[in-house]
């Protein structure tokens, strides 16, 4: 039987607003005679089978929470658009999110810095951020999960439009609005799965009064509120269903009621200091998520380094609008430690780069499968990455929101060769300019993970090329390796001497090592004349031309059909010329056929006066083809662009694996001075790792991840070197070998054996290293250098194998070594 709508709707709303547990919400609704009245609850999205959609959203609670924040940003932009008298779907509407921010929050500025939060002073960021807030209330971690309250002064919704907007599914509410992020009309439901056991959510909203002045319907001017819940399967229903509170009256039928509403000028929907409901607003939207799971991040103060804020920073790489975060739970701290601005990791790293980064961020342009992307490469100082990310190595974003990532293990691939920097590199790839079709191919609709497909694999391959050949990263890798190994390897020289003697009489063993003149250290140097120094580029370059030939001359190059072409330019442009936020330059590459001119896939990387252009040959290229390319460089300071034309003569497939590299230098009129460059090595670098800390020695906790008593051998890729075998020069992988000398099986053997403990340790070390070398050599012989992202890398395979054999290694060496023919 239908019940009357509760007359004190405002009082009920305030009770629900201040409740901080599921149990209290349920009790409040029971007292109002709503909880057990099935007629008072409507199907979310108008569908009784909505669990299939709602239950198939984000897989992690932090990614789901981001969708709510993105919806608030969209609501603010739409509100400002409407307040300016512009139809969000009309021809005068901004075409991009940045354009909308510039138009509505930067007073329509046309400057190249307009619409960028990173260009705003702190006071401006805080002023705008107070229009979208997230506050934590309720439980501390020891007592349960907290509640999160998200509030915004966006357009707001009237009670009767809530079912077709915030509480809808799969509608095209925003699909025709070009300057918003949300398109699928379902991402915001992802949070429900993480709201306690009954998945409760409070929704409170009022339409901006300035947008409905002409409306005669009194409910249009009221605040509407509802509670969303999950109902378990009953009767013949095979799955759960999500419903929202909408009581029926005498004029409505079962499950077709109206959202509760009340009339008042303002409601306390925004936080103020430690009070989550201390600031009133005359319109806007509030979403409260009860007992929200913090499994994806720490349950401590949300503003601390291991708290929610750092996760949101990573998932919102470059926020269109800043958001104000408030910690309203009972934590100790000074006044300024309970609220701050969330701006995204891109802005945060720019603000803090001097303290946290090894160098200014590197940037490069990628064009893969006809789609343009920009990669920003950050290298943290040792140990500084932990406050910015956990296991994310490569982040893919669209309009500042993370849509998927690759783990840091990507940097351990041999094709990347950055194992020494794997815990320090963070790459963000901005995919905002790619087509909608390619977005669908690259990302899942939940926008929290990548699809496995041709496009994602092509991007990974391009990124491998960029990182493996980036001069700045190569320099930092050698610096980091030197810092870690130089002092240790001086003490380890006796190991090399013994190992050299060990392999003298065994041709089989000697072939496992790199051929060439023996060097005692990977850092032994020789002299080479080249120019070094701090390169200072110009904001607007005065030249951009092929290396070593005059501007205007056509460059002719050969390129094997199974290889990529690499073209080198020299310029006086600053490193971030193409990728800076203000007045960036533009690089475009065209393939000319005499009639048509089409954009060509490429990667351009600019570092210290050298621009490296990497070009995969078009799919339809044939041996003997002659390909003509035109590179065009332009910026706001030039009336006439720099144009460089080059021709590639396509040759038969290359059968050589030589990767001879020419050392480059920035252009300079100075004669330069001598600088040192590293030579190759023959014997592996062996580093002993012990449990305890001692001078000039690695200990378990120095390793990442740390060693334990079962760890045996870990190899770390240190780049490539040329080896000379039978007169043939080949590129081979170089590894450093870290051996755990406090392995439990080694220590057990030393304790129980009458043999000298140091001799046992030597046997153990050399046995593991030789096994590791055999695996590395086997991989090189098979040319299996490019690890499949779905499989363990070679480094991981060696580590697992060595851990498995460590238990039997010494018994095998000793027992088989003592074997006689008669045995």
Main structural class: alpha+beta
Overall morphology: globular
Helix content: 10-25%
Mean pLDDT: 84
Oligomer: single chain
The profile of the biggest β sheet is: 10 strands, mixed
**SS strand fraction:** 25-35%
Number of helical segments?
A: 16
Uncertain residue segments: 1-6, 514-532, 657-681, 784-791
N-to-C span? 93 Å
Whole-number count of domains: 4
Could you explain the architecture of this structure?
This protein has 823 residues and is an alpha+beta fold. It has four domains: 9-342, no CATH class; 357-469; 494-524 and 681-817, no CATH class; 544-674, Immunoglobulin-like (Sandwich). Helices cover 25% and strands 25% of the residues. The chain contains 16 helices and 32 strands. Strand 8 (267-272) and strand 9 (275-281) form a beta hairpin. The longest helix has 25 residues, at 757-781. The radius of gyration is 31 Å and the shape is globular. The N and C termini lie far apart (93 Å).
Which key terms come to mind for this protein?
823 residues, alpha+beta, ten-stranded mixed β-sheet, 16 helices, 25% helix
């Amino acid at each position: 039987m239908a019940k009357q709508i509760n007359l004190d709707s405002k009082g009920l709303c305030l009770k629900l607003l201040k409740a901080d547990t599921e149990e209290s919400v349920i009790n409040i609704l029971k007292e109002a005679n709503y909880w057990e009245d099935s007629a008072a609850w409507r199907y979310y999205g108008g569908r009784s089978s909505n669990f299939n959609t709602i239950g198939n959203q984000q897989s992690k609670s932090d990614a789901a929470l981001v969708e709510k924040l993105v919806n608030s940003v969209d609501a603010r932009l739409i509100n400002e658009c409407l307040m300016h008298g512009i139809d969000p779907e009309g021809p005068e509407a901004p075409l991009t999110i940045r354009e909308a921010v510039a138009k509505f929050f930067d007073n329509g500025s046309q400057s190249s810095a307009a619409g960028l939060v990173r260009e705003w002073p702190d006071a401006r960021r805080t002023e705008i951020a107070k229009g979208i807030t997230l506050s934590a209330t309720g439980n501390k971690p020891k007592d349960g999960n907290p509640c999160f309250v998200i509030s915004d002064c966006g357009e707001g919704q009237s009670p009767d439009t809530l079912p077709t907007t915030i509480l809808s599914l799969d509608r095209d509410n925003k699909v025709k609005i070009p300057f918003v992020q949300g398109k699928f009309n379902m991402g915001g439901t992802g949070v429900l799965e993480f709201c306690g056991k009954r998945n409760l959510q409070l929704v409170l909203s009022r339409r901006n009064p300035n947008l409905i002045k002409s409306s005669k319907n009194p409910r249009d001017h009221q605040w509407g509120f509802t509670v969303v819940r999950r109902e378990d399967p009953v009767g013949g229903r095979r799955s759960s269903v999500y419903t929202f509170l909408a009581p029926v009256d005498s004029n409505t039928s079962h499950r077709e009621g109206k959202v509760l509403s009340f009339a008042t000028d303002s409601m306390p929907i925004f936080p103020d200091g430690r009070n989550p409901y201390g600031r009133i607003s005359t319109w806007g939207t509030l979403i409260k998520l009860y007992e929200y799971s913090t499994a994806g991040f720490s349950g401590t103060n949300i503003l601390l380094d291991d708290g929610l804020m750092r996760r949101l920073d990573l998932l919102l790489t470059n926020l269109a609008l800043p958001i104000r975060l408030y910690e309203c739970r009972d934590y100790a701290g000074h006044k300024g430690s309970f609220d701050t601005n969330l701006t995204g990791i891109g802005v945060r790293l720019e603000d803090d780069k001097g303290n946290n980064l090894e160098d200014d961020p590197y940037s490069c342009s990628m064009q893969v499968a006809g789609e343009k992307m920009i990669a920003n490469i950050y290298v943290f100082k040792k140990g500084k990455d932990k406050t910015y990310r956990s296991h994310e190595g490569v982040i893919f974003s669209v309009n500042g929101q993370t849509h998927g990532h690759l783990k840091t293990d990507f940097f351990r691939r041999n094709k990347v060769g950055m194992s020494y920097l794997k815990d320090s590199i963070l790459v963000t790839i901005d995919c905002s300019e790619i087509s909608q079709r390619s977005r669908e191919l690259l990302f899942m609709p939940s926008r929290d993970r990548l699809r496995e497909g041709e496009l994602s694999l092509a991007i990974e391959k391009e990124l491998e090329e960029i990182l493996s050949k980036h001069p700045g990263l190569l320099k930092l890798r050698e610096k980091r390796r030197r810092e870690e190994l130089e002092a240790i390897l001086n003490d380890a020289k006796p190991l090399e001497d013994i190992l050299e003697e060990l392999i003298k009489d065994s041709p089989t063993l000697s072939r496992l090592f790199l051929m060439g003149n023996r060097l005692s250290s990977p850092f032994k140097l020789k002299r080479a004349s080249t120019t070094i120094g701090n390169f200072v580029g110009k904001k607007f370059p005065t030249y951009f031309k092929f290396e070593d030939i005059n501007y205007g001359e056509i460059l002719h190059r050969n390129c094997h059909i199974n290889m990529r072409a690499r073209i080198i330019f020299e310029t006086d442009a600053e490193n971030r010329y193409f990728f800076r936020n203000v007045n960036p330059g533009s690089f475009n590459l065209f393939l000319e056929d005499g009639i048509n001119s089409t954009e060509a896939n490429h990667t351009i990387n600019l570092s210290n006066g050298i621009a490296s252009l990497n070009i995969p040959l078009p799919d339809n290229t044939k041996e003997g083809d002659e390909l003509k390319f035109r590179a065009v460089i332009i910026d706001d300071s030039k009336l006439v662009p720099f144009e460089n034309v080059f021709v590639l003569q396509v040759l038969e497939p290359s059968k050589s694996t030589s990767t001879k590299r020419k050392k480059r230098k920035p252009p300079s009129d100075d004669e330069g001075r001598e600088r040192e460059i590293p030579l190759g090595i023959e014997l592996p670098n062996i580093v002993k790792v012990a449990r305890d800390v001692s001078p000039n020695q690695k200990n378990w906790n120095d390793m990442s991840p740390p060693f334990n008593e079962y760890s045996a051998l870990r190899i770390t890729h240190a780049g490539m070197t040329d080896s000379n075998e039978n007169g043939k020069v080949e590129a081979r992988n170089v590894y450093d070998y870290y051996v755990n000398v406090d392995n439990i099986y080694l220590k057990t053997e030393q304790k129980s054996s009458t043999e000298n403990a140091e001799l046992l340790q030597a046997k153990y070390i050399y046995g593991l290293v030789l096994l590791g070398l055999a695996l590395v050599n086997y991989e090189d012989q098979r040319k299996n250098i490019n690890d499949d992202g779905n499989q363990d890398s070679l480094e991981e395979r060696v580590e697992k194998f060595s851990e498995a054999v460590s238990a039997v290694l010494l018994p095998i060496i000793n027992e088989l070594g003592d074997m006689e023919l008669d045995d």
